Amino acid sequence: MLQIKNLNVHYGVIHALKDVNLTVNKGEIVTLIGANGAGKTTTLRTISGLNKATSGDIILEGTNITNLLAHQRVEMKVSQVPEGRRIFPEMSVLENLELGAFLRKDKNEIKKDIDHVYDLFPILGKRKKQTAGTLSGGEQQMLAMGRALMSRPKILLLDEPSMGLAPLLVREIFEIIKNINSTGTTILLVEQNARMALSIAHRAYVIETGSIVLSGTGEELSKSDEIQKAYLGGE
Ligand code: ATP
User: Fold this and answer.
1) What is the tally of structural domains in the chain?
2) Which of 154, 182, 223, 226 has a CA positioned 20 to 30 A from the CA of residue 71?
3) Which residue minimizes the CA distance to atom 30 of ligand 1?
4) Residue 135: inside a domain
5) What is the pLDDT of residues 149-196, one digit of tens each?
6) What angle do CA 25, 27, 30 make, to 5 degrees?
7) Nearest 10 degrees: CA dihedral of 47, 95, 152, 149?
8) Is residue 49 assigned to a domain?
9) Whose CA is nearest to atom 17 of ligand 1?
10) What CATH number corresponds to the domain at position 167?
11) What secondary structure does DSSP assign to 84-112, as a single string?
């Protein structure tokens, strides 16, 4: 579904991504793990068009989208949930969800999808009239994910959904990610929480200072000595 070929990204003189190659097949959860500053967010932002590639290609279902604008990529059903959530705090939960469907005109289907989001995240249904800024961190994360789903993405790009959440909530969010995937949405998940990410991912890539250094199935990487030492706190 998504192929990234020899992708390079610079911020001025900083070479943030170095010949990154990565594939996400239809129906998969693929995770990109790595330390702070390794280039995870840059990878997602370049896929969704918020950062420009210096060179390389991003291919979505056979179409080269490397030079498309961010909104054109949304039209092509690529949807990113940014790090730090970025919901609209003054607007209600429902209004935030409706905004996620801004490119769509199918009112009845939009209503159905809002109900689907409330099924996935019952707490959002309970709080639909509440202003989003008053939600807890976990609820805001759920709202950001729900909003992204409202564009009916083919591929959902998740940037550190576990950030700042209590362990119990982290588990809940990861269960929901599995759930979203099982209903047909392909997922690229960026995480510092390697343990949780590897536990739900079909395949994984490890990025260090802008380069992919390892890849394999979620299970293979969780067993790898290198990963144990560097990312899972093993000896
Ligand atoms: P984090 O977990 O902190 O989000 P990350 O793996 O997502 O880390 P990136 O945010 O992609 O890493 O950063 C990769 C590199 O690019 C880092 O060296 C970072 O300092 C640099 N960088 C990121 N954004 C910018 C920017 N806007 N301007 C300059 N350098 C940047």
Assistant:
1) 1
2) 182
3) 11
4) no
5) 998 999 999 999 998 888 888 999 999 999 999 989 999 999 988 989
6) 60
7) 70
8) yes
9) 37
10) 3.40.50.300
11) T----TTSBHHHHHHHTTTT---HHHHHH
Ligand 1 site residues (CB inside 6 A) read: 11, 14, 16, 34, 36-42, 83, 192
* Single-letter amino acid code for the residue at 211: S
Residue 204 lies in a domain: yes
Which two tokens mark 89? 């705090």
98 within domain boundaries: no
- Contacts for 222 with CB less than 8 Å, ≥ 6 apart: 195, 198, 199, 232
- Cα of 56 vs centre of ligand 1, distance in Å, is 19
ipTM for the predicted complex comes to 0.93
pTM: 0.92
Residue ranges making up the domain that contains 60: 2-86+153-231
Residue position matching structure tokens 């996400």: 24
Q: How far is CA 60 from CA 2, 68, 74, 75, 78, in A?
A: 5, 11, 12, 12, 9
